[in-house]
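Supplementary Text 2. Reproducibility record for the structural model of the 447-residue chain.

All settings were left at their defaults, and a single model was retained for analysis rather than an ensemble. We include the record here because the model underlies the residue-level annotations in Supplementary Table 4.
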Amino acid sequence: MANGTIVTPIGYWGGVLELKGIRVDAEFEVFESGGGWDFLFGKRLMTTFGAIHDYSTDTVRIRVQGAEETLHNQFNIMTNRPTTTSVHNVTEVQRRKTAEVGEDEEWIERMLHVRLHVESTVGETERLRHQRDRCEEEETRKAQERLDSLRAERERLEEVVKEEEEIERNEAKARARKMWKKWKGASQRRHRRWKTRMMPVKTIPKQNGTNCDERNPMGTATTTQEAEGSETAPVCVVSEEAEDQVEEGMAEIPTDTLVEDKNLFTRLTDPFKPQRVEEVVRQVRVGDDLSAEEKAAAHALVAEYADIFALSVGEVRHVEGAVHRLNIQENVTFSKKVHQKPNTPPQRKYLHKSIDAMLAAGIIEQCEPSQVKCVSPTTLAQKAHQGAGLSLEELQHRVNDECVAHGMDAPFDLPLRPETTAEEDEKADEPKWRICQNFAQINKVTQ
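Retained model, structure tokens:
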């Protein structure tokens, strides 16, 4: 403005503007004049039209590309001045006045049309701006709602994870307490039996409500008693759990056919089950260089600690809390090429049986082909002394047989050779292998 005030326009207009038949591409700003003017022909627009203002005649000449027109002031200041011209001049002035008024009305009508167009453009601009603001507000509201929803979902998942971790911790504690109770009872029983045999016996007076055996429950004299030559002192074993008593005179149970009996695999539930203890003692081999008393003592020791022996792979306990993780980078890749190597029928039979046993015991698990990350060869190495000859004991028995057949004394003092069935002979001759897995690829990236 003339006083230096900067007024912000409320809209912009651009297009073709026509005055007196002269058309130019023009653009102008729209201001709120408060009714001061309808259309202000400013300097930029006058420059575009090449306007020249003649103050003596109060007219404006516009010239564009050789076309020239004259615009007269709508107030006709010059025609209102006093004149002494003739009637002819007055008539000419009136005619010109009438023509100029017509031109001015036409120009005003065009300006009104332009103003209406500008007002409609400004209204459309305002409407679009309000619509844009509403869309932005709606998008902001939706984005905030999505963010709040994601935060709530994340908090819910964190709560679920915390609850699951708490449940897992409680279950682990419960398993540990259960395992401790089971192992605690067996350990206490072993300790009592060892203490009763090895420690000096002390006389324990009878107490009311306590049923005590008058004799040593183990039936053997202690070291102190043997040294002093005294009789077996009365011992009272007080326990929350009753000792397992094995009645004498029980018939012998053949165990050769119980090797595959699943009822014997009770290490996790009943490690001192009589049938299981008997099978453990049968499978533990004692050398022939021991006397009968020493063999009996060895068998008794094995029976006492029968819970530490596993009759099958499924009886091997997992160590609680033990986790082994391989430090392998994410971008490391391994070979997945399968190298074909045929196996003999006995090898396939042994390998498939071993895999089934490890699957049943939970040592390995099946996976989809898409889950395989590394492929390495598996080698079956035949165990030593398998199909390579007779055992030492069998050789000694055969030497004794030949000596007796030729009237000579047997050089080896051996027990009678146990009779074997055809099925046992066939099973004894069945070859066995060691399953060897090649971990060279994994070792290379984890060293």
